[in-house]
Structure formats: structure tokens, C-alpha cells
Amino acid sequence: MENDGKRRAFLKVLGLGSVSLGTAGYSVVMEAEKAEKKPHYGMIFDQNKCVGCTDCEVACRKVNAVPEGQVRLYVENKTDPETPMEKKYVRVSCQQCEEAPCVAVCPSKACHRDAKTGIVSMNPDDCIACKYCIVACPYDVRFINHKTKAAENCNFCLNTNLAKGKEPACVEACKYKALVFGDLNDEASYINQILHVKDSVRMKPTFGTKPSLRYIPVVKVGV
Amino acid sequence: MNGAINFTYGFSHGVEWGWPIAVYLLLAGISGGALIVALLVRFYKKQHEDTPLLKAASLVSFVTIAFGMVFLVGDLEKPLYFWKILINYNFTSVMSIGVMAISIYIPLTLVMCLYLFEKEISMVLAKKSQLLDYFALVMGILRKFRPLIEVLSVVFAVVICAYTGFLISVLVRFPILNTAILPALFVVSGLSAGTASASMVATWFFKEDAHSSDMKTLHVIEWPIMAVEMMLIAMLFVSLLVGNEFQQTTTVAFQSGVYANLFWFGVMGVGFGLPLVLNFALGKHVAHSKMAFYLSGMASVTGVLCLRMFIIYAGQTFGV
Questions:
Q1: Complex confidence, ipTM
Q2: What is the mean pLDDT of each run of 10 residues along chain A (223 residues)?
Q3: Which of A74, A128, A140 sits opposite B78 (nearest CB)?
Q4: Residues B36, B157: contact at Cβ < 8 Å?
Q5: Tell me, what DSSP letter sits at residue B119?
Q6: Closest-CA residue in chain B for A80?
Q7: Domains of chain B from N-terminus onward
Q8: Beta-carbon separation of A135 and B320 below 8 A
């Protein structure tokens, strides 16, 4: 009889435990579903369309008040010297990683993910300019702004154009539509439509940083 | 790397973390290393008296880590805002974890100094009897915790040495830094520099006999420490040599250029070669001289400084 009582108690605990665990698990799933509704902003750089005019660079510097001699966005000429007529340019800027090392290493949480948009951005007031984020970035696309003395990165114009409901300055400025900005979590968005029909790559994917920038490379045709 | 598309331009210009960080890494290593060695000698020999070695090690560990803070804060672009790091913690950041460890470690080294220099401090305070009473009261309380404080000091000294390695080994862009060996190398080279510093300070300031039992112990253990240090450096080099394309390109740092000179003359020549020659190659007369003792001690510390400089500069020069 004594054993029976113990078994009953054990079964009770087991039953209660599974019920509570089950509901807890369910609420976790609910949370995950809610989180999925958050936007995940991304950008496409189409190398086939970029002519290297650097209008994007100019617009970025103007809109985000980037000091003279510094850039958040740079267009690098990667034309193969052996085929000088086949121009190739590449956008160099923050890759807006989903697993951002800069956010992970920042000791003062100045480099953070914006709660509303999920964009990796900077709070210059909390930045002590230890440069840890700069050396931790696998893409080397962060710098100390000479004026604010704080680390800085491309944040898709979060505090400037995006706040006003406009597209990032570089996207607005591009005459050739080489840049597409949008919400990767929105199945109907233009950026997703392009990603469905075109092959794109992420930079240095082996670092596991899951960049939100996608590059559509120039490929040889007619082979 | 994608063969199809990539960029090689970067927004940082060369080495972002320069010599102040290398000096800080050295000072943190000396601080931790000195305290670890002196306290382990104390535990192993079951000493209860305050030896000149422990006096020296406590003083060295406190002074070096305090100076280290000067270099660390001085390297910030906004040094006056360093307090922000103390109010905003990020548990995924090695730097934040290190700051937490440091804020426990510095008081520990300070308390160690209070234990070891109680007489001296009392003498200074003797003129102001009220202060002396307070000090005696505080020491009365602290003395009860001494065994605990000593154990905690060893633990946190190891944490300090190791964290300085993890601090830069998480930087995935740099193959020389992004290795598992680095924290171990920093602990061992810290022990080496710490041993040298503590024994020099003990003999110079606290009149420890250069042939006393403690000094003999240090003299025995410093060679195995050096051997392990060499082995770890060799392992680091081999792991790069047999690694991927990017790791292989970094081996140039050991072979030619300024950093190779720093490595072969500084780390290998001064750090390992000079002490070995002074102690083993020139006969017993030289090996037992005071000059050889201080010279090889300073050579050890210089070698570890060169190692930190090499790691910091060569490490950040060769990126993926």
C-alpha cells in the first residue's frame, strides 16, 4: 500500500509536469511565431547593374552626415586587369548579420540590434570607442567616426531616411536599380521576388554570421 | 570566400589595437603570473610566514594591473567615458566578462598587499593614531578571510591571464589570433614573465637571498614553463602551416619582414636564448652572478612583451 501511494504521487508529478511543460512549450512556439512577424530588412546588390558611378556613396555621406574622408558605404572596383572592358564593382558596407559579432562583443551594448526593425545600429552615447567591434567584424566595415568618436556602420539609414518612411539613401540614389531594399520576412516583398528568381550569394558565409546583404554576381554567359 | 564575388577593401586602417593593448596584455600577464607562482609556492611548501617572494608578488600584481588599466583606458578613443563599460554589461562580450573579472581581481590584489605590508602601512599611519585604529580594525576582519582570499586570488589570476587570450582569440578575421592555443599561451607566458618579475623584485627590494629556498624553487620551475611556452608557440605555428589558405598566408609573419625580426630576435633571441645562454652556456661563475640573474629576468619579461607585440601586430596585419 505504501508503495501504491508513492506510485500515485509519482504519477501525479509526472502528469502535472508534462502538462506544465507542454503549455510552456506551446507558449515558446507562440513567442517564436510572434517574433517571426518582425521585419528582417535586407538588401540586394546586383553587380550586373552597377556601373560604379558612386552616386550611392555620395548620397550616403550627405544623408548620414559622414565626416569628410570617411565612408559607411564604398564601391570597390574589382575589374579583372586582364579583361579591363568587363567592369566589375562591389558594394562594401555593413552586411547586417543576423549573428552579428559586433553586437556580441560590444562591452557597453552601444552596438545593438534595433528593437523595432532588427537592424544592427549604434548608440553613439554609450560607445566608449574601444574598437572591439571593429576588429571583431569579419568584413572590416566598421570605423570610428571622427566627429562623434563612436563606432559606426551602415544601418540602412535607420535614423535618417528610414525614420522618414523613405528607402535608404543609396537605394534612392541608384539610377541603375542595382540596389534593392526590403523586408525578407515579407513573402510578397519585391526583394523576395527577386531572390526567388535570381541566384545570389552572401559574403564570407563560412563565418556563420548570416549576412542580410545578398550579392548577385556577374556570371559568364553563353557557356 | 566566394570565387564569384568578394571585396577586399576595409574601413579600418591597419592595426586598430596597437602597442598600448600589447603592453596591457603583458602587464595583466605579469600580474596574474606573479601571484599564481608565489601563492602556489606558498601552498605547496605549506608556508605560514610572509616570505619576501609573496611580498614581491603581491606588490607586483597590484602595481602592474593598476598600470595596465591606465593603458587599457588610454587606448579608448573616448577615455573619459570608460565608466559606461561599468554600468552596461554584455555577457556575450569577453571584454565585459574581463571587466567583471578585473573588478574582482584588483581588490583581491589590493587586499593581498594589505596582508603582506600590514607592518609597513601601520608604521606610516603611526603618526595618526585614529587612522591606525581604523586600519587595525579593518585588518582584524580581513585576517579571518586570508585563506579564502589567497585561493580566490589564484583563481582570478588564472582568469585574468586566460581572458586576455580569449579577448583576442574571438576575433575571427585574424587567423593568428583566432586559435584555441592563444589563451593557454598567454597563461604560460604570463607565468614566465610573472616569475621573473616577482623574483627580481623580491631580491632587489625585499632583500631575498638569490640562493634561498624559494628562489631555488623558482629557478627550477622557470625552465619547464619556458619549454611549455616554446611548445605552444611551435604548435601555433604548425596549426597555421597546416591550416587553410588564409592560415597558411599568415606564416609569412614568422618568415620575413618586421614581425619576423620581432619574433626571432625579440621572442626567441632575447626571451628564450639570452636566459638560456646566461644560465647554462657560460659556466657556473656567470650563471650564479647577480648580473646574470637580473639580466635573464629582464630578458624574460622583454621576450614576453615582444611575444605580445608580435601577436597583436602580426595578428591584425594578416586578415581573412
A1: 0.90
A2: 61 60 54 68 96 96 94 94 92 97 95 95 94 96 94 96 95 96 95 95 94 92 60
A3: A128
A4: yes
A5: H
A6: B5
A7: 19-317 (1.20.1630.10)
A8: no
